Every structure is written in C-alpha cells, then in structure tokens.
C-alpha cells in the first residue's frame, strides 16, 4: 500500500459479461494491473526518503553518547579470587560495608544470606565465608573429586539423626529414609 493510502497496484475492473449458458465454459481473460501514475510514485519515494533520513538522524544522535566519567578498574575478590570491572566509588562502598575487604557480587550474596540465616553480624558471616572459600581454593580446585566427596559427607552428616556417620555405618539407610 502506498503512503497516501492508495493501493500500489489496483485490480482491474472486469467488464460485465452476459451469463454463460449451462454446460458452456466461461472465457478466461487475462487481467492486467492498472498503471501507477508518476505523481503517486514520486510521492511514495519522497515519503520513504523522509522516513529514512529521520532514522539516520536518530542513529547519529545515539552514536554521540556522552563519555563515561568514571574510570573502571579490575578488582579482585578477597574471598574467591574472582575479578570484576568496577568503578572506584563502587569498590569504596563495598569496602565500607564488608570490613575494608573487597568482596565480589557472588560472595556478597553468600555473606548476606549467611548473616540473615544465622543471625550473626556481617563480620562473622564474612569470616565464615572466607574460610569456606579458602578451603575450596586449597582443596577443591586441586582435587574436585575429593571436594565433591567431602560435600556429600557433610550433607549426610547434617541429615543423619545421630549427628555423625562413622566408617563402619552405612549411609544407605539415611538416604532411603529421606526418599520415603
């Protein structure tokens, strides 16, 4: 459809024919499309050119965004060792909140959850989390199978009714009890 609402190619009007007798086939005449006037075509091209230049102006304005005023630096987490790109202001706020230590977003969530769960202060939750991360970095990265085995042992120890599992006892009853 043309921008002004007219159809670009209008269907040709078929001439009215007399009804065909029963059993006779009607004549098939090819229908040719009506020609578009030059004025309508020029108007459509003009409207398209105007729309295109509007989009180019919008794209040029988006390309000229103001420069970021803050310097972005890499900061290394003191718990897990992961690095993140952060502004100096963000690093300062995190250090204020977590006892002068810079803690990544993942460790921040873990420390906050630990503090909420156990009802302890942020300093104690941070110390506990740093202990877990330090143990993981020493054992887990060097020997992941050992770390997974240790994690399963801790899960079973927490779920055991007696509170501890020894080497002579089996963990199968504790597992089947949880399944039933």
What's the arrangement of secondary structure elements?
Layout: H1 38-63, E1 72-76, E2 83-87, H2 88-97, H3 105-118, H4 122-140, H5 144-159, H6 172-179
Antiparallel strand pairs: 1-2
Helix pairs in contact: 3-4
Describe the protein's architecture and organization.
It is a single chain. The two termini are 68 Å apart. The radius of gyration is 38 Å and the shape is elongated. With 180 residues, it is mainly alpha-helical. Helix 3 (105-118) crosses helix 4 (122-140). The mean pLDDT is 75. It has 6 helices and 2 strands. A two-stranded antiparallel sheet has the order 1-2. The protein has helices at residues 38-63, 88-97, 105-118, 122-140, 144-159, 172-179; strands spanning 72-76, 83-87.
Mean pLDDT: 75
Instruction: Record the strand order, biggest sheet.
Output: 1-2
Low-confidence stretches: none
Distance between the termini: 68 Å
Structural class: mainly alpha
H and E string: HEEHHHHH
How many strand units?
2
Radius of gyration: 38 Å
Determine the number of helices (DSSP H or I, runs of at least 4 residues): 6
- Beta content comes to 5-15%
Quick one: overall form?
elongated
Instruction: Give the proportion of residues in helices.
Output: 40-55%
Using brief descriptors, characterize the structure shown:
180 residues, mainly alpha, two-stranded antiparallel ribbon, 6 helices, elongated
Question: Could you give a short description of this structure?
Answer:
This protein is mostly helical.
């Amino acid at each position: 459809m043309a921008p002004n609402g007219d159809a670009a190619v209008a269907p040709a009007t078929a001439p009215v024919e007399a009804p065909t007798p029963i059993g006779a086939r009607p004549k098939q005449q090819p229908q040719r499309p009506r020609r578009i006037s030059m004025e309508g075509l020029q108007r459509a091209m003009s409207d398209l050119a105007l729309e295109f230049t509007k989009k180019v102006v919008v794209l040029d304005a988006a390309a000229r965004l103001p420069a970021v005023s803050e310097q972005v630096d890499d900061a290394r987490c003191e718990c897990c060792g992961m690095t993140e790109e952060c502004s100096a202001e963000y690093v300062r706020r995190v250090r204020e909140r977590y006892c002068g230590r810079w803690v990544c977003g993942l460790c921040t969530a873990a420390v906050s959850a630990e503090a909420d769960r156990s009802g302890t202060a942020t300093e104690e939750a941070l110390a506990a989390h740093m202990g877990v991360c330090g143990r993981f970095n020493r054992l887990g990265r060097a020997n992941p199978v050992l770390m997974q085995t240790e994690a399963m042992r801790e899960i079973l120890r927490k779920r055991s009714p007696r509170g501890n599992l020894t080497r002579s006892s089996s963990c199968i009853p504790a597992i089947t009890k949880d399944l039933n």
